[in-house]
Amino acid sequence: MRLSPWKSTVHGLAYGFHSNVSLGVTLGMKVGWTRYRNPTKSSFMDNLRLILFFTLAFLGLMLYQAWQQDYGVSNQRPAKGAGTPASSSVEVGSVSVPTAEVKADLPAAAITSDSGSAGKKGLVSAVIAVETDLLKLEISTRGGTVQKAFLLDYPDSLERPDVKVELLSPSEPNIFIAQSGLIGSEKGKAPSHEAIYHAERYSYRLTEGMDELVIPLVWTSGDGVKITKQFVLRRGSYLADVRYRIENQSAESWAARDYGQLQRTEPVDASSGFTTYTYTGGVYYTPKDKYEKVDFGEMAEKALKIESDQGWLAMIQHYFLSAWIPPKEQIEHYYTNAVAGGKYLIGSYSPSVTLAPGESRTLNRELYIGPKLQDQLEKIAEGLELTVDYGWLTVIAKPIFWLLKTIHDWVGNWGWSIIILTLLIKAAFFKLSETSYKSMANMRKLTPRLQAMKDRFGDDKQRLNQAMMEMYKKEKVNPLGGCLPILVQIPVFIALYWVLLESVELRQAPWILWIDSLSEKDPYFILPLIMGVSMFAQQKLNPAPLDPMQAKIMMSLPFVFTIFFAFFPAGLVLYWVVNNVISIAQQWYITRKIEQSAN
Is 460 left (phi over 0), alpha (psi -120 to 50) or beta? Predict the structure, then answer.
C-alpha cells in the first residue's frame, strides 16, 4: 500500500494535535514520505509502518469527526413518524407514558387528565416554587412535573453572575423536564404525569436551621384511593426523593406501577459555532450493558426496551445532568421514545404492585438535578460518575482527574494545578520523550547529508533510498525510532484533554490576570499566540523536511493551529502551551548534547 505524501501529512497532523504537535507532524511526514519513496523495505519495517499508519489514521478520523461536530452542518433529524410514538405507549396530550404492555396483571389502559381529582370541573394546574441552598425549582401540580430547575451555585455566565444556570425548562426551543407518575390498570385508577394534584402550599424554602424540605401533593380517586406524592430535598444535596404514599381505602384491590422519565428537545445553542464538542443526549446504566449512550437519532429510529435492576437513566449535557435512580433491588423496564414536536423521552417503570382493600404502601425513586460532580455521583449510584464522559479512555482519565483535584486541594487554583499536572506527566514520560528527541536530533544532524544525497541523485528514487538506508545503518540511526515512544504517550494526552474539557470544577474557574475563566476562550487570544510561537520554535529544533512542499506545510502549521486554538477553552490552551514549552526545553537540551558530542 502506497500512501501519498499529503495523506501521510494528514496522519501526522492528527497525531501531532493530540500529543506533541510539531514533532508529531514531522514524524508523520517523514514516515509517510519514506514509505512513498521506498515501497521495497524489509517486512519488519513494513509492518511497523503499517501499524503507525493505522494508528495515525484512527486519530485523524477522531479529529475529523470532532471537527464535523463542531463546525459541520447540523443534521436536525425529525422524530421518526412525528406524532406516532416509537414504542408501545398511551398518547396523553403531546407526550406519552409507557403502558403495562402484555402484562396480564396490569393491562394497557388509556390514561387522561380527567382521572381522579383532575375530573373536578374548573380545576387547573398551578406552580409550586421550591428553593434550597443549591436548587430553585418549579413543580407543576399537573403530575408533579419538575418543569424548572436553576442551579444556584452556577452562574450562567461571568457577565451575568446573578442569572443562574437553568438546567430544566418547559419553554421552547430547549424543553427539558422531569416527569413521573403511576400507571393504573384502568382509567382513573392512578395519577399519571397529566393528573392534577392538590397542594397545601405553593411556596417552600429551606431556611436556616432546616436540613430537609418536604413538598406533599395529594391525589384522590372517586372510590377511596388516596395517593400522596412527596418531594424530599435536603441541604447540600442535588438529590431528591420522590415518594408515593398509597392508601387503598376502597372496597377492591388496586394495582399500578410507578415510572420516571426525562423529556427534552435537541438543544439549540445560540452561541458561536466555534465550540468544543461534548455529548448531549440520553444515557443509561445496567450491570450488563454498563454505561450506554442513546442519542436523539437512536431514540427516533428504534425504541429501547430492556429490563434490569441496579440501573439508572439520565439526560446529560456539558457539565450538567438530570437522572432518575430507581431502587437498586427493583427490576425496571427501561424505554426510550420520540414523540410529536421534536421531543424525546428516556424513562423506566417498575413492576406492578397490588394493594388489598385497606392496605397502604410507599413507592419511591430518586431524582438528581445538578452538576457532574464525580465524588457525589459515585456515592448515589454505581456508574453514575460515568456521566462525566471521558469516552473510551475513562480508565486513564479518572486517575488523572483525581491527581488534578488533589493538586488543586493543595494549591487552590485550577490554572496552577493544570501547570503542575503537566509538569508531573512530562516528568513521568521523560525517558520516552528523551528517546524520541534523541532520534529527532540524530535525524537533524544528518539533514545536510540527506539534502546532498537528494541533490546528487535527483529523480532516481531507488538509488536515493538505497543510499539513505546505507547511511542510516552506518550511523546507527532509525528514522522511526522516535515514533513508538510518542505513540505510547498518546492515550495519556487524549485522556488529559477530556479531563480538562469535561470537569465542571474548571467551569468559570479563574487563573491569573486576564484569564477569568479556564472553561472559556482567552478573551485577548494571548495564550493561543504563545502556543503558535512555541510551535514555531519546536519546528526549528526538528529536522527540516527535504521536500519543498512539506517544508511549506510545516511553516503554515503554527498559523493554522493558532487560529484553531483561539476558540478553545483557555484551560486546554494553557495545557498545550505548558506542554510545548517543556518539550522545547527538553528537546533543545538533548539536541545540544548530541551536537556537542559530535564535535
Answer: beta
Contacts 24+ apart (CB under 8 A), 154-159: 154/320, 154/371, 154/507, 154/508, 155/508, 158/508, 158/516, 158/517, 158/520
Measure the CA–CA gap between 183 and 357, rounded to whole angstroms: 18
Between the ranges 108-117, 226-235, 451-460, 516-525, where is the mean pLDDT highest? 226-235
**Domains of the chain from N-terminus onward:** 89-267+279-389 (2.70.98.90), 401-598 (no CATH)
Cβ neighbours, 10 Å, residue 463: 13
Hey, how many other C-beta atoms are within 10 angstroms of the C-beta on 115? 23
The enclosing H or E element of 424 equals helix 414-428
14 backbone dihedrals φ, ψ, rounded to 5°: -60, -45
The amino acid occupying position 472 is: Y
**3-class secondary structure for 435-456?**
HHHHHHHHHHHHHHHHHHHHHH
- For the ranges 353-367, 374-388, 507-521, 578-592, which has the lowest average pLDDT? 578-592
3-state secondary structure of 247: strand
- Helix 548-565 / helix 526-541 crossing angle, nearest 10 deg: 160
Give phi and psi for 85, each to the nearest 5.
-60, 145
- CB atoms under 10 Å from CB of 229, counted, come to 25
pLDDT > 70 fraction of the chain, expressed in percent and rounded: 70
Q: What are the distances in angstroms from CA 265 to CA 193, 279, 338, 341?
A: 18, 14, 10, 8
How much is the pLDDT for 541?
66
What gap in Å lies between CA 386 and CA 36, rounded to an integer? 43
What confidence score (pLDDT) does residue 139 get? 96
The CA-CA-CA angle for residues 483, 486, 492, to 5°, reads: 150
Tens of pLDDT, residues 510-524: 888 888 888 888 888
Q: CB–CB of 380/239 below 8 Å?
A: yes
Give me the chain's average pLDDT, please: 76
More confident residue, 580 or 176: 176
Residues 437, 486: Cα–Cα separation, whole Å: 10
What does the DSSP assignment read for 143-197?
Answer: TT-EEEEEEEEEES-SS-TTSEEEEEB-SSSS-EEEEEEEEESSTTSS--TTSBP
**C-alpha to C-alpha distances, 252 to 101, 104, 183, 222, 377, nearest whole angstrom:** 23, 18, 17, 13, 42
* Angle of CA points 266, 321, 195, to nearest 5°: 75
Residue 339 has phi, psi (to 5 degrees) of -125, 175
Which amino acid type is present at position 574?
L
Phi, then psi, of 51 in degrees rounded to 5:
-60, -45
Is the distance from CB of 363 to CB of 243 less than 8 angstroms?
A: yes
The residues pairing with 235 across neighbouring beta strands, listed in sequence order, are none
